[in-house]
Every structure is written in structure tokens, then in C-alpha cells.
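re: ur question from earlier - yeah i can do the single chain one, its not a big deal. heres the input i used so u can compare w yours
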Amino acid sequence: MERSPIPVLTVQTAPYEDQRPTGGGGLRRPTALFESQRNYLPNFVQSLLSSVSMQPILACIFLCKRVCSIPRLYHFYPVHIYLLCVCILIFKSVILFRIGRLVIGQNGILSTPAVSCIIRKIKAAGGIILTASHSPGGPGGEFGVKFEVANGGPAPDIVSEKIYQISKTLEEYAICPDLRVDLSRLGRQEFDLENKFKPFRVEIVDSVEIYLNLLRSIFDFNAIRNLLTGPNQIKIRIDAMNGVMGPYVRRILCDELGAPANSAINCIPLEDFGGQPPDPNLTYATALLEAMKGGEYGFGAAFDADGDRYMILGQNGFFVNASDSLAIIAANLSCIPYFCQMGVRGFGRSMPTSTALDK
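and the output i got, formated as C-alpha cells:
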């Protein structure tokens, strides 16, 4: 017996005046605000997608839950909390923008670098990211939505402004409350929705493996593995701070490159980050700092919740700032196969960067 297409609803809504994105197309607010303000999340997502020029056939939307608390906005859904947000974004992309394929990290988890990697790999239109960034998460913390454009980078100011202008006049959005997606099962799932794409495809991918393959093409894994396991091995200590980087640290540094399992700490992603801000600095990454001060480890690092910020410590807790890290990479490009093959066009740095790179 042929099943009927899953119905799509159009929901009337009222605009909000406070949805101006900051920091590369992102909107971050207290979780309680998302929970208490009717349609606050779908309004912003609708505005975001309305601002982007999408290719109707090849376009893909990435959805990534960087570990944080997801608001309990739709109580009529008998599904896991973060799946609600996944569905919201799927419906708008499908119905209003004729997008026929959506790619999601297994269990809804991707790091920011992995999002960028996959967007560029399959030439996606962009990626939607649910994140508290490095702020405290959970019911008493923060929640946010960010957008990465087709080049894998954050949305530019012109896109952010367009999102904001649309958000102030929004009157409706589309939703498909009966759709169910299994985020734990790798592979393709197909659905017949009330739109021109039949079937609509949702692909669940192993984002860690995809990102690992990219790293293999950039760095000399044999040299790094020898550094971590050879006769003159260096002991490392990596703190994922209970954010999204835990699975990446385990898979890449421990399983692939041979670092002992106890080299990695706080690798279980938690929605409230264990009650601590996942901010990799000397104030919050205290477990790593204390371990490094003992002199047992020669290299230490901590990551923020979504993997796009880090802190490096040397032996005895010596702090290595980001400016020096960049300068060290620049001075040793001959050790990185990707740059040996592709060459270097330049180095990027921000206003507070030191003059180490010049030297």
C-alpha cells in the first residue's frame, strides 16, 4: 500500500526586533529566552534561509549540533530534544527553498572545522550550526544558531544584515511535524514530503572520519605518529572540555596517531559542558594546566565547545599564545606536505597578533 506524502504545515508568526546576528551570522541568547518566546528559533532560521541564494538542485544544508542545550520548543514532538531543531531546519529548507538533500553529522554532532570541510567537499550551499560556542550551556546557560556560507567560512556582515532585516517583517514559516529522522544511523534516509522533491534525502555521516581524511592529506601522519609512539616519544595531554571535540580527539590522536588513551580528558560531550564554560584559557582549563605544571607532559592543548578555538601549553605549563603558534607553523612549512605541494598564498592574522610572524 502506497503511503501518503508527509504533510507540511504553514505556521503564522510575528516578527521579533532583537534577532540581529553578531559574530558571523550567529544569534546567541539565553536558553530560557528560546524556550519562553513563541517561534523564536524557527523565526530566525526562516530569516536565515531567506537571506541566502540557494541552488535548487545541488544545494545542501548542513545541520550541526555543537554540544549545547537545545530549547524545548515543541512539546508535541515525542522525540529527543535536539531532533526538534533538526526537523525545524529541514522543513524550511525543503519547502521554501526547494532543497532536496540534507547532510547531518551522526547524533547531530560536528565540529566547526568539520562543518567547513564537508561544505567544501560536496559543494554545499552552506551550513546551519546550533551552538553555545564557548559560553556555558544548559537550561541556565546559552544557546545559539550560526550560519556558514558556501566557502566554509562564517556569514559576512552583508548576509547578517539581510537576515536581520528579514526577521523584522517575517509572517510565516513552514514545518512538517510528522517527519522522523534517526540521527544515530549512518547512511541515507528517504522521505516523501509534500513538495517537488521525491524522495527527500537525509544523509547521516561520520564527520570524524571525513575530517580525519582531510587531515591525512595535509599533515605527515607518519612523522606525528613516530613523535607520539617512537623511542623519543613526547607525552601529550589534550582536554576536550566536554565539548564536541571529544570524539575527534579520541579518534585522531589516540586511535589513529597512537597517543595513549589517558592522554585525552573530558572527551564525553555534555550538553552543559559539565557545568563549566568550555573556554580554553588559563582560567577555565585548570585541569589541563595543573597536569602540565607537573612536567610529565611535553605538549598540552584544550579546545572550546565547537573546536574552532584552542589553547596550547608547553612543558611545565608554559603558555604558547596563538601568535607564536602561527609563527612556528610559518617557519616550518617544509614539514607540512600540503603546503609543500600547494604552496602558500599568505598568512591570516587578527589585529592583536604579535610581530612574531613578521620575524
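The domain at 9-207 is CATH 3.40.120.10 (Alpha-D-Glucose-1,6-Bisphosphate; Chain A, domain 3). not sure if urs matches, ping me
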